[in-house]
């Protein structure tokens, strides 16, 4: 088993804070640093899946099948991209979430699957739904840590207490080693609102707040619609710069590797060549 593999859930029950954008671009940036990365889409909207160019029509086995059917083979659900791997979601996951209420230990099934994947990857990233429920608990049970994006908006800090309560409940029960990796700001600009949100984060969480701020850019919004990461869509822009900076902090916090800039690989092409195993 790769003891250095770190499983990170990108979570915040507030929608529109950049969870999927972060998961996709963090996966790409980690791969640029030479890490083997798997992204698991746990949102029934399947935005992360489509955001890296995978057509939902091509998916025969998804994360929903892995949760519902313990006999489903994980290799049949795995897509291989040029830079990182993906276990996709489909809208069927909504139905699976409803069924999970009646399945014994259903919220631990993905965690058991992930344990078997640790030897193959350095990082496993979980994109989570913007709601509490069986799928969020599934992610928290599978994760080593939680990375929490906070948008620069009026309601940014509202609801984080609920997420932290959920994390503490999981820690006190089924996943005692779960921890918060850190908080970071998204959708920032040079406004008073951004500064006030930043001040509020620092006041509440101190040195748990990452230094990197993800700036609001049109290119970051465009990239997923084209099935590309920001590194393929606008590799020299602010979004790519910010996510590389965030990734350095994440690697340091995860204690998985020492950054060596010489390990950075040049980006070529996009993820249109994602193929099913």
Describe the structure.
It is built from 12 helices and 9 strands. With 277 residues, the protein is α/β, with parallel strands linked by helices. It is globular, with a radius of gyration of 17 Å. The longest helix has 17 residues, at 238-254. The protein has a single domain (6-255), classed as P-loop containing nucleotide triphosphate hydrolases (Rossmann fold), CATH 3.40.50.300.
List the helices and strands and how they pair.
Elements: E1 6-10, H1 19-32, E2 37-41, H2 47-51, H3 63-68, H4 74-77, E3 79-80, E4 85-87, H5 93-100, H6 109-115, E5 123-127, H7 134-142, E6 145-151, H8 160-172, E7 179-188, H9 192-205, E8 209-215, H10 218-225, H11 230-233, H12 238-254, E9 275-276
Parallel strand pairs: 1-5, 1-6, 2-4, 2-5, 6-7, 7-8
Antiparallel strand pairs: 3-4, 3-9
Helix pairs in contact: 1-12, 6-7
Structural class: alpha/beta
Q: Number of domains in the coordinates?
A: 1
CATH level-3 fold name: Rossmann fold
User: Biggest sheet, in brief?
Assistant: 9 strands, mixed
Strand content: 15-25%
CATH architecture: 3-Layer(aba) Sandwich
The number of E-state strands comes to 9
